[in-house]
Design a protein that fits this description.
Layout (H helix, E strand, L loop, with lengths): L22 H40 L3 H9 L1 H9 L21 H13 L22 H8 L15 H19 L5 H17 L3 H7 L3 H20 L4 E5 L2 H6 L7 E4 L2 H8 L5 H11 L1 H10 L6 H11 L8 H21 L1 H12 L4 H13 L4
Antiparallel strand pairs: 1-2
GO molecular function: ATP binding; ATP-dependent peptidase activity; metalloendopeptidase activity
Protein name: ATP-dependent zinc metalloprotease
InterPro entries: Peptidase_M41-like
Length: 382
């Protein structure tokens, strides 16, 4: 553990009797003591100033002020002070990621990741940015099954109540309704009211109220965490800065996110190419891999995917922006190829995915989640 210089408060040394003939030596010793005390006072002043400046940085983090936090971290005098005091701010640099969620300028978010990577904090960020993944570009359902052991239907989003945990909940609701009817309790007015409210929720709120209620059911909540951790990890490894992970359906609705949760990431190359009216195959492949990573994560952990309907809708939307637009057959092949690449990437680094899920489950901030990913990537999987 790094320790700070001892604060001696300029305590006077024990008196030493010196013969009169040694007066010059005595003056030299006294002068040295004065200089030493001044040096200690200088360290104390520097440390106090550094503490005060770091408190200002923490205030910027608390207020989610990314621009202000970056200005502090970029200040050369801060680095020199940290070096002199034994890296007083070690570990606090990560906190700048917690200010990204409120940032309107995604270039500032990218700057935060680049700054931390330059300082050696994010060695895994963008590790697979330029990787050429092996395997055929034509991924048929047979190839997909031979590679993952799963049918194509297992890698497709399901409607609520069709399979998995949602079907169990639906069966429980129907069973409960049947019991009430058998006891002579008329629940039809209540069912009509519930269906009406659900319809209004779906039309005006995007189903966020029902999603909020469902999110309290532990199995359903964990599946959401697995899904979003898949998006987060693949985006991170592909070098796409992550703005934040939204797990509250109401907050997601307020931020304009379709669905019950969402991971916001940014691909600068893709945005620049879209502005120019073109999309390269590299940028398109990377975007599709991140987009289908949630479905791949669910399939990897549970053996099938339930969520991801909105991810597929976004995929179709961007396919229509291509010139010429992809045909249905081409879209299906691109979707299978993307989910296979994401599935393999998550499978190779499933220990990092588990670390991300656990951090999200504990309610950790983005900086802590990224830190847990880096710690897992630095260790061999058990």
């Amino acid at each position: 553990m790094l320790s700070s210089p001892p604060l001696l408060c300029c305590t006077a040394p024990t008196p030493i009797l010196i013969p009169p003939s040694s007066s010059s030596s005595s003056m030299s010793q006294s002068f040295g003591i004065v200089l030493y005390c001044r040096k200690i006072n200088g360290h104390s002043t520097t440390r106090t100033r550094a503490m005060r400046e770091w408190q200002e940085y923490e205030e910027a983090v608390k207020k989610k002020d990314l621009a202000r936090a970056l200005r502090f971290l970029k200040n050369p005098s801060i680095e020199s002070v940290n070096d002199e005091l034994g890296l007083l701010g070690l570990g606090r640099d990560w906190e700048v990621l917690d200010t990204c969620l409120n940032a309107d300028d995604m270039r500032l978010v990218a700057t935060a990741y680049a700054l931390l990577q330059d300082r050696g904090f994010l060695p895994s960020f963008g590790r697979y940015r330029n990787i050429v993944l092996e395997g055929p570009r034509e991924v048929t359902p047979t190839v997909l099954k031979s590679s993952t052991g799963l049918e194509v239907s297992k890698l497709s989003p399901k409607k609520w109540g069709v399979s998995g945990s949602s079907s169990v909940l639906l069966i429980a609701l129907l069973a409960g309704a049947s019991v009430l009817v058998n006891q002579g309790i008329d629940i039809r007015p209540n069912l009509a009211a519930i269906l009406g409210l659900s319809m209004l929720d779906a039309i005006f709120l995007g189903g966020s109220c029902l999603a909020q209620i469902s999110s309290y059911w532990p199995p359903y909540k964990r599946r959401i965490l697995v899904h979003e951790a898949g998006h987060l990890l693949v985006a991170y490894l592909m070098g796409c800065p992550i703005r934040g992970v939204i797990l509250d359906p109401i907050v997601a609705m307020q931020m304009g996110i379709q669905g019950q949760a969402g991971t916001q990431f940014w691909d600068e190359k893709l945005q620049n190419e879209l502005a120019e009216g073109r999309i390269s195959s590299t940028a398109f492949d990377r975007y599709c891999m991140v987009l289908f990573a949630g479905i791949a994560a669910e399939a990897l952990v549970y053996g099938e995917a339930e969520g991801g309907e909105n991810d597929e809708n976004l995929f179709r939307s961007i396919c229509l922006l291509l010139e010429p637009p992809l045909a249905i057959v081409q879209m299906s092949n691109q979707a299978r190829w993307s989910v296979l690449q994401s599935y393999n990437l998550l499978k190779w680094h499933k220990h990092a995915h588990r670390a991300a899920v656990k951090a999200l489950e504990n309610g950790s901030s983005l900086s802590v989640v990224i830190r847990r990913i880096e710690e897992a990537m630095a260790m061999k999987p058990v």
